[in-house]
Amino acid sequence: MNSIFLGQSALRVSPICLGTMTFGEQVEEAQAHAILDRALARGVNFLDTAEMYAVPPRAETYGATETILGRWFASRPGVRQRVVLASKVAGPSRGMPWIREGKGLTPDDIVGSCEASLRRLQTDVIDLYQIHWPERHVPMFGQLYYDPAKEASQTPIHEQLDTLARLVRAGKVRYVGLSNETPYGVHEFVRLAEQHGLPRVASVQNPYCLLNRSWENALDETCHRLNVSLLAYSPLGYSLLTGKYDQHAPTDPGAPQDGRIARYASVRQQRWGRPEALAAARRYNQLARAHGLTPVQMALAFCYCNWRVASTIIGVRSLAQLDENLDAWGTQLSPELLAEIDAIRWELRDPAQ
User: Fold this and answer.
1) Residue 120 confidence (pLDDT)
2) Mean pLDDT of all residues in the chain?
3) Residue partners of 205: CB distance under 8 A and separation at least 6
4) 263-292 tens-digit pLDDT
5) Residues 6+ apart with CB under 8 A from 140
6) What average pLDDT does range 148-161 have in this prediction?
7) Which of helix, strand or coil describes residue 302?
8) Out of 53, 62, 233, 264, which one is annotated catalytic?
9) What are the pLDDT digits (tens) for 73-102?
10) 77: exposed, middle or buried (C-beta count within 10 Å: 0-12, 13-18, 19+)?
11) Domain of 202: which CATH number?
């Protein structure tokens, strides 16, 4: 894997990023450290976490993932300097009062969250510090429509950027990014950064996979023209695109019960749990097999080979899953197969948007 730069930053990362949100919930610490060791040995130098993790979020596991990563760094001298570390400050609480009580993303919220993450991660600096979701009330996590009547923003984007700039000047953050953003949000963060000499966002972390290609509805042009990189998350559609639920739906007695979508009702209540998403996944998985590929190979190659994607975030629970995801690197999708993928999308659109 050849490393790439994120946006206009000096961050040079592998085109596959290891997401860690399962660490501390589905993955115990010893196994998490083994996964991290293997990923690093196989050329992955990019790790993504968040103060909110593990997932599904609970008060009992808040910050657990960062703590596990911090102990990994502490037990392996020199490793921290070999990786690009990304973390995220949570947006407004969205029903998670253990993160914060307020409805905004104030300067105190951002600084306090960053400093707590640094302590848990046992590091002096976070290479890429991202806003996990906007402070603005925008459609995300399965919502479809913007409703201006629900707007309750309390902290202007300029003030958020100015606070991030303080963290950069203090040496606690190197570069900044966004997550779950809209075209307006990306443009406004970049415009204000350039106008006021504030940190320019290097990347946006949004969902992108065969079941959710909403990135292609304006965000791809926005980020291409502004030179902001996409970090694609959920490339396997919360395991729907692995084929494990092709015979039995996640709630059926015969379905594997180790995946998040089968194990947690809160996940099934979101976009990945829609019957339409499962039906579309089965169509794509069948198409992969018809072309001599596994569903995992086709779904990941769709992201790995896509000009829109800078780095694809994979999340795993085992060494076997990690190896399968990494082994898919180099898989090529023919123009004929890509045309058939587009035909399914034209028919079924983006059921997990």
Assistant:
1) 98
2) 95
3) 48, 88, 130, 177, 178, 179, 180, 230, 231, 233, 313
4) 777 777 788 999 999 999 999 999 999 999
5) 133, 134, 180
6) 93
7) helix
8) 53
9) 999 999 999 999 999 999 987 788 999 877
10) exposed
11) 3.20.20.100
Asked if residue 347 is part of any domain, the answer here is: no
The length of the chain is 353
Position 259 pLDDT exceeds 80: no
CA distance readout (Å), 211 to 284, 327, 344: 9, 22, 10
Residue 84 domain-assigned (yes or no): yes
Asked, for residue 294, whether it belongs to a domain, the answer is no
State the maximum Cα–Cα separation within the chain, in Å, rounded to a whole number: 57
Range of the domain at 165: 4-242+300-332
For the chain, the domain total comes to 1
Is the C-alpha dihedral spanning 289, 294, 295, 301 positive or negative? negative
Residue 260 lies in a domain: no
Q: Which amino acid is at 198?
A: L
Catalytic residue list contains 284? no
